[in-house]
């Protein structure tokens, strides 16, 4: 008696294979980021953000409004994506409670269309959207904290604290986007295992192109383009000299 091929077998083969491809690529990306950050776009961005924080702290606190505006822009983006993720979670929950939604899958999907498999699809999709929501919330938290620190009137805040907040916010942002990428491939699974597998392969190819950094790390110096600590120190010395001269003039006039 020969082995009979069934449509359900496609889900057992292609879906785990596509998910394995996505997970393997991101493990490779994580290893590359930890060992050779200069070869990844995330490491390149974090290097630029660290230098940006140092440059912003060279500016007088009263003139750091545009720095807070930059952080606010990132904050708005993360808040928007977290809201979208939460709305999609609500929609998926509504679909899970609607048995009429299985009508289309029973007629047009080539693969396993059983109720248990359909429930697994939506539950996994819901989990990744919840993960994206949590990551974007943490992104907002860290950027709010960074904006609070960078706008302090005194210079008592170590630059490392602000850099850590900005980089952590950027890392949570990256993880949240990855969760959305996983959710996109799982969304294709609703239309069958073949679109899910093809989408996983295409996503990995596109992400490998986007995540690879071929540009050398920018070495930021403190004496470039005049916007450095030397200029700030020179301006401070001039202001102190002016104040002292005015004070001496007042003493002499008395």
TrEMBL record:
Cited Pfam families: DUF599 (PF04654)
UniProt keyword annotation of Transmembrane present: yes
Swiss-Prot/TrEMBL keywords: Membrane, Transmembrane, Transmembrane helix
Bilayer-crossing regions: 12-30, 75-101, 122-139, 186-210
Keyword Membrane part of the UniProt annotation: yes
Protein origin, superkingdom: Eukaryota
Protein name as catalogued: Uncharacterized protein
Upper taxonomic lineage: Eukaryota, Viridiplantae, Streptophyta, Embryophyta, Tracheophyta
């Amino acid at each position: 008696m020969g082995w009979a091929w069934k449509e359900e077998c496609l889900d057992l083969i292609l879906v785990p294979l596509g998910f394995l491809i996505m997970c393997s690529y991101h493990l490779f990306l994580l290893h590359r980021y930890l060992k050779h950050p200069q070869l990844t776009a995330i490491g390149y961005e974090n290097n630029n953000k660290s230098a940006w924080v140092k440059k912003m702290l060279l500016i007088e606190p009263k003139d750091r409004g545009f720095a807070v505006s930059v952080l606010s822009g990132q904050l708005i983006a993360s808040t928007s994506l977290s809201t979208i993720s939460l709305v999609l979670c609500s929609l998926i929950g509504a679909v899970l409670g609607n048995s009429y939604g299985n009508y289309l899958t029973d007629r047009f999907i080539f693969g396993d269309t059983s109720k248990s498999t359909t429930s697994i699809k939506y539950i996994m999709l819901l989990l990744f959207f919840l993960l994206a929501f949590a990551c974007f919330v943490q992104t907002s938290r860290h950027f709010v904290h960074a904006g609070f620190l960078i706008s302090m009137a005194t210079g008592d805040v170590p630059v490392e604290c602000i850099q850590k907040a900005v980089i952590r916010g950027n890392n949570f942002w990256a993880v949240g986007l990855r969760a959305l990428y996983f959710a996109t491939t799982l969304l294709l699974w609703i239309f069958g295992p073949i679109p899910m597998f093809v989408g996983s392969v295409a996503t990995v190819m596109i992400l490998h192109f986007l995540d690879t950094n071929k540009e050398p790390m920018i070495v930021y110096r403190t004496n470039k383009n005049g916007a450095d600590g030397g200029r700030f120190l020179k301006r401070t010395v001039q202001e102190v000299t002016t104040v002292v001269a005015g004070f001496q003039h007042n003493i002499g006039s008395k």
